[in-house]
């Protein structure tokens, strides 16, 4: 007996949900699963994995802003660091660091919502062109520009870059989630996100390598007093920014060859036969779910509407999932982006990564206690590199190993609780730790970075791709992710405001760091309560949680499949 379209739909999705994986050694891109006969699914995961390295473009601004300060800034108490060192004014620094998060928040909602209308595949590539154009544009800004002009143009271009770079968030997560079997979905989506760690590592490693490469030239120029060190540092930041276009160029081809997700094809387009062929290709198997080679079955799907969306999230369970995920992401990004976007400032306070043998022979701005340009750059890049390699990356891979064992909610709850404790200790025992127990402060700071990633930074990325209806999954994911970037903007504005009103450079102490650590502890505590609202999605199919197994009418269209465009 010929199966109904609802039965064929369930059978087709079951083929995806029952795909078999074998755990093997991880690859350089972060994929951790070799699929016995499911090579296409592996390629899909890897395409998403590689492109999440675009975090490099966002996180590298911390050291780039420091370099820009030396070239275009001035020695002033309104700067972002010690007034004996040239730096950008706090307002300019703030503009650079919030431009991208604002762009990402808008991009996430635009690309997420559009992917529910025109398809995941069609949107999965547009953002690449945006990234490439905006990154190249940043590198060719004339060197004769003033600090105000430079930060304005850079801010605009970084806003545009943010539209593309983080438009990738909902697309990579949703595509991987819709292709993944339930029992491996957490690990596959986490593997995609883990490449953010490699982007963070690259954003620390490449500037460190450049500082080392330009060491002799910078020091010689400083000793000679000819001012050429500014030209060297100006070249350095342009190289750092420009390298961000490399992964985008490579990923562009991968984006153009990816297959549309079967869930979009079935539950939004209503085209079961197309999905069956895509699934068969993905599984490298002959078509088993299709009932005919010459007849196309049309599956009647619900229409998308604001009223339908409102009714879905008026259900308490669905609203709790949306609010819990969005607020958890907001709270987490207050901490994550405060630490990453202001890493050089924080590392200066704790002298983390400072070497004993790298000092300039001259001061800057004629101030007696200046550490010097090269010394500060080296300290910042070295500290970033150590933190990325020792804490950020391990946190991602602990999450990958345990996400489908412990579950999303337990890991996120554990992360927020431990982060609350860690930031409370660092914030309220700040002066004692900094002056009398610096190694313990560094240890606590490192553990905070670790448990962000072995905790809510990974879990929010996964959960947001699992709880909504297919026809709204991209949009709801974009809303949740944009909430996180709103947290990043709030964090940076708060940090800059506190920085302006609270400075004390005695013993390298910046009071703003202490106050922001205390505020972060409050947000981490709020994340504990928002996590309690979340469902556990481990091991469930996307349809099982969303309730997207409604019966629809069958419509048999006598259309030769070969005459239909894919």
Automatic annotation (TrEMBL):
Residues of the Major facilitator superfamily (MFS) profile domain: 41-538
Transmembrane segments: 54-73, 123-141, 188-215, 235-254, 319-339, 385-406, 413-430, 442-463, 475-496, 516-534
Subcellular locations according to the entry: Membrane
Coiled-coil segments on the chain, per record: none
Keywords carried by this UniProt record: Membrane, Transmembrane, Transmembrane helix
Keyword Transmembrane helix: yes
Pfam family, any one: Sugar_tr
MF (Gene Ontology): transmembrane transporter activity
Membrane topology field: Multi-pass membrane protein
Keyword Transmembrane helix listed: yes
InterPro entries, per the entry: MFS_dom, MFS_sugar_transport-like, MFS_trans_sf, Sugar_transporter_CS
GO cellular component: membrane
Protein name listed in UniProt: Major facilitator superfamily (MFS) profile domain-containing protein
Species of origin: Gymnopilus dilepis
Lineage, opening ranks: Eukaryota, Fungi, Dikarya, Basidiomycota, Agaricomycotina
